[in-house]
Queue: 3 jobs
Job 1
Amino acid sequence: MHFQWYPGHMTKARRMMQENIKLIDLIIELVDARVPLGSRNPDIDELGKNKARLILLNKSDLAEERLNDEWIEYFKEKGYSAVKVNSKKGGGMNQIRAAIQEACKEKTERDRKRGILNRPVRAMVVGIPNVGKSTFINSLAGKACTKTGNKPGVTKGKQWIRLNKNVELLDTPGILWPKFEDQEVGKKLAFIGSIKDEILQTEELSTELIKFLNAKYPGVLEEKYSIEHSEDGYECLASIAKSRHCVVRGSELDTEKAAAILLDDFRSGKLGRISLERP
Ligand code: GDP
């Protein structure tokens, strides 16, 4: 199995992001807490140089808490502001607002020295597909927000969401493409659903996930599906199919369906909190 991304598809997204980045002060970079490094695109460093950066470990509810904290430390040591979030639940958004201010401290200070007071910080959210950009924007903006509409001097059609008197957020996120040379990383991105399943072999992918879980989270599969332990991925998949009554043509085990169930259970956290990368 070979994981790749379509560069052609991303040319337009990249161009749009280059345009939008000119308008902002702060990049809010969403990464997946389960794969914090693999779900980043290092090109953002070049695209967003001279901009403040806040890294959010999104979907932190799906990753191990202890490792989330280790990752936060990791990014802080690299000099980034970093916070863990659960955009779906929407908790902790006040902390995010504070983190936005904190990440822009230098800019605000520079403004102040130049006599520019109360110019709001402008921010935009970026991240790879499915990392939770839209969910995060909705959660942060909430119901109370007011769209500021088009402004003179701003590219036509751009909408800014006013979060408070100090911060405005571009309502469309920047889409980064997954970028990896290492196929192991590609595999992890496929596990979390950042590479479209249509181009993947779900059965093969799920046997890879089984291999990972057996190694790093022993017992999880056995307990979840009430199956015997097996080191063999396909055998394990067949057991899941049996346990979940996935059959085709009367009695044949439907391992493809079992694979879809397994991937879905993993992605939605039903196998528990699982981190795919460790700092
Ligand atoms: P986008 O492609 O980056 O805009 O991603 P979406 O906002 O569409 O989110 C992709 C999926 O992840 C959706 O099913 C969301 O409900 C889910 N999601 C987003 N944030 C979180 C989170 O913090 N925790 C969990 N468990 N799911 C999330």
Note: The first strand starts at residue 26 and ends at 32.
Job 2
Amino acid sequence: MLSILRKARLKDKEMRVLMLGLDNAGKTTIVKQIMHEDVNTVSPTLGFIIKTIDYQGYKLNIWDVGGQKTLRSYWRNYFEKTDALIWVVDATDRFRLGDCKEELHGLLLEERLMGASLLVFANKSDVKGCMSTDDIKDGLKLDEIVTHKWTILQCSAMTGENLTEGLDWVVTDAKERLFLY
Ligand code: G3D
């Protein structure tokens, strides 16, 4: 029975990956870069956009939430069957790192996200003077996370640095867990 279920999920090649983060973190630009679109024409996200990208045949759902804090409460409606969470951080935004930590740790308390692994993208690494991954790891208190498997990678939506590596980590990790079902 277990092997039938496993095969069904693998055959569907369905993997739900949610990409979230504060506004201005670079989520839209990351998606554009992954899809080889022009990254210089990103307009601010006003509201709530969902994009699906196919990566190695898997479906990745990208949640792009605008600046309004009130919208963040709606994230929870879409947590069902999430395999991985990508949390995008603006590595140049020291001011909101505390805010960013609160939002992330709040998310990790969600029961429906319990099985999901977490990739933290420290974005905008191309900007001189941006925070290092160690700064962000400390600021977000990642070492305190014991409920989820996690990793952090610096990346740049502008240059494309580490975007593929990040998605590879997510897909490989989720695949391994699907085999355990
Ligand atoms: P969001 O979807 O998370 O809200 P956006 O964020 O993708 O709209 O990006 C917000 C701003 O950050 C944009 O600049 C975008 O060009 C910039 N940005 C995103 N990723 C990077 C990156 O890796 N490096 C640099 N240098 N800038 C990045 P504007 O000026 O349009 O607000």
Note: The first strand starts at residue 17 and ends at 21.
Job 3
Amino acid sequence: MPSLSAVDVIRTKRDGGTLTDPEIDWMVDGYTRGTVADEQMAALAMAILLRGMTPAETARWTHAMIASGERLDLSGVARPTVDKHSTGGVGDKLTLPLAPLVAACGAAVPQLSGRGLGHTGGTLDKLEAIPGFRTALRRSEFLAQLHAVGAVVCAAGESLAPADRKLYALRDVTATVESVPLIASSIMSKKIAEGTGALVLDVKVGSGAFMKTVEDARELAHAMVSLGSAHGVRTVALLTDMSTPLGRAVGNAVEVAEAVEVLAGGGPADVVELMLVLAREMLAAAGLPDADPDAALASGRAMDVWRAMVAAQHGDPDAPLPTARETELILASRTGVVSAVDALAIGTAAWRLGAGRARQDDPVSPVAGVLLHRRPGDPVRRGDPLVELRTDDPARLPAARPAAEAAVTITPTATPTVPTLPPRRLVIDRLA
Ligand code: URA
């Protein structure tokens, strides 16, 4: 690789210029190997955040991040492979029922997942609430389970896109996360390196998401679909609502319990609906458009795959989930109709109770979380329970309480009335 100057590269981007392929390759490679310093990459990330990157620059940046590690070869897997990625939301436990559901319909789901950061939860943290569940698998275990069970949800090893691992941690402490090209290349470098043949992106929009507006979410979705397609991964993106939490449970063990309810044929309607929409998209992208996820759910085949997946990863599907020692109810202060439950405020309450982390290496509590007793559109009487806070650490309650109280808006009426709210539009747009 030619020897370039990090200062020149930073200056070019700072002044609004376009980086060349060799400059991008050299910076990403040097940063991964430690010859480009943290402060230089931080300055470049800030320049990118402020100046943006062209589609060609974003594509090369993604290519360089993939090239920083290994790219898995799943061509030996007999079934078509398809994965789903969510950009992160509150109460978004969809991966848990979706991976076994799609596997029960004939695809293989190689899901390398992440941990939660800030108010958004992480799939690995949720699964680790299951007694015994292992998220760190060896390559051979990952492949064997993909063949035998069809669904694996585990941590990405150190060898996949190591440049992203290092850069994401740096962006997190330098206020440079919220850049569309950096988010798109971060997500897609990991998904492309994972080797999946097809990918469905669930791009969340609303207060509980990274992307607060439909325009920003559409820009991110478009960038990711282009990157996936350019790398031979059939990629589809749905923009979905994250102004309100998904389902009733927000946390780790509580979300696993809700996911199991869904697999058993129950669960909140919004979780079931979005799971089925995503399953149909995944199966179509995998080349199985005639597969029937409704039937796989109703027959219990999805639950069978869930149990097999949990057992293969050393979890006990029959073990009771851990429960919190302390609970507190937030009660309605007036009679009326619940007109809003804000996702960010509920995510913040769950995080303050211990369900999430402030820094990447912080521990999370499996039992901490929030249960919504009322959801938008529900009638409510003064004194009815609205939100339940759960934690093992009562000292956390005073910080969580105001966020949970502020999350719920009640439109007062003389008596609790049948709601007149428009139905929630879960899927806002689709890009392919
Ligand atoms: N998730 C990622 O993996 N990367 C980002 O940059 C943001 C969310």
Note: The longest strand covers residues 198-205.
